[in-house]
Request: fold
Amino acid sequence: MDWIDPLADNKSRIELLAFLGGDLDIVNDARASFEKTSQQLNPQDIKLIHYLAKHQHTSPFRGTVFKFKVKAPLFICRQWWKHVIASNHNDEQLGWNEKSFRLIVIYIGNLRHFFEILPILPFLIDFFSRYPNLKPSKP
Reply:
C-alpha cells in the first residue's frame, strides 16, 4: 500500500498495512441486539454506518481492526499513545541518537534564549554523536 504524508512535511508518514473486518461487520455488530444480520451491504446499511458515526455510536466500529505503520515525531506519538485503547505499538526510538540521526529540538520558553542556543546546535549534535551512551546525571 502507499504512504500518505498527513502533515505534508516530507517527514511524517502513515501506511495502512492490513485490516480485519469491514462495513458489513460494522452493520452486523450494530444490529446484534436485534438478532439481525446482513449478507450483503445495501444503501440502507450505508446510511446506518453514517448515522452511527455522526451520533458517535462507536461500539460497532470496534469490531474492525487496522494495522498501520506510522512515522511521526516522538512528541506526537506520545500524545497519540495516551489516547489509544486496545492497541500496541513498537517503537524504534533510540533517543536523540536514532538510526536516522535526526534531532528534534523542542524548546518552550523565551524565544530570545532559543536564538542564543541556535548557533551551538551543530556542536551539540556532534558532541552527543561521539558519546551515545552519555546519560544526564540525577540531581
Notes: Residues 92-139 form one domain. Residues 93-98 have pLDDT under 50 and may be disordered. The beta strands are 13-20, 65-71.
